Amino acid sequence: MKRIFLGLVLGMVFLTAGEAIAADSKPVTVEMQTNLGTITLELNATAAPQSVENFVQYAEEGFYNGTIFHRVIKNFMIQGGGFSPDMQRKSTRDPIRNEAKNGLKNSRGSIAMARTSAAHSATAQFFINLKDNSFLDYPGQDGWGYCVFGKVTSGMDVVDKIAQQPTTRKNGMRDVPANTVIIEKVSVSR
């Protein structure tokens, strides 16, 4: 009996952070304050534990505070979480595994991990869908798709306001808001 109990205790100690969040059935709520208003998100740790834990860790470390929405494409999505207002890319941790095969859809108001053309390249950047973008769902055009890990629960009017910003080119990047949209603070509630 003592061995079984010790095994259970040791098993609990060695849960990954993502598994620990997923084991906690309460939703993870995120408040993202921008210079255009506040967006509230509910993250789905059951469907995307690694993506949620990754996002939460960046948020709790203050990584997102002072970053910008650097890519805005009307009738598609707004992307942020990786650049400073002077368009300097922030250093990130190693990429995470793509969890797009979780049944969540890239529908209007969903938040998903941004990545390069490599399936498992997501780090800190994320995007919020402005419309249903089913072509981004698993398996997508590349056999993977883009991992949705939550949704906007309030502040979609702010997301739409960001989407209406005029864009320009900055530091060789297209679709950058001409008037900087700053993510002032990201707070997490569990």
Automatic annotation (TrEMBL):
<dbReference type="InterPro" id="IPR002130">
    <property type="entry name" value="Cyclophilin-type_PPIase_dom"/>
</dbReference>
<comment type="similarity">
    <text>Belongs to the cyclophilin-type PPIase family.</text>
</comment>
<feature type="domain" description="PPIase cyclophilin-type">
    <location>
        <begin position="33"/>
        <end position="188"/>
    </location>
</feature>
<protein>
    <recommendedName>
        <fullName>Peptidyl-prolyl cis-trans isomerase</fullName>
        <ecNumber>5.2.1.8</ecNumber>
    </recommendedName>
</protein>
<feature type="signal peptide">
    <location>
        <begin position="1"/>
        <end position="22"/>
    </location>
</feature>
<keyword id="KW-0413">Isomerase</keyword>
<dbReference type="InterPro" id="IPR029000">
    <property type="entry name" value="Cyclophilin-like_dom_sf"/>
</dbReference>
<dbReference type="GO" id="GO:0003755">
    <property type="term" value="F:peptidyl-prolyl cis-trans isomerase activity"/>
</dbReference>
<dbReference type="InterPro" id="IPR044665">
    <property type="entry name" value="E_coli_cyclophilin_A-like"/>
</dbReference>
<keyword id="KW-0697">Rotamase</keyword>
<comment type="function">
    <text>PPIases accelerate the folding of proteins. It catalyzes the cis-trans isomerization of proline imidic peptide bonds in oligopeptides.</text>
</comment>
<dbReference type="Pfam" id="PF00160">
    <property type="entry name" value="Pro_isomerase"/>
</dbReference>
<dbReference type="GO" id="GO:0006457">
    <property type="term" value="P:protein folding"/>
</dbReference>
<keyword id="KW-0732">Signal</keyword>
<dbReference type="InterPro" id="IPR020892">
    <property type="entry name" value="Cyclophilin-type_PPIase_CS"/>
</dbReference>
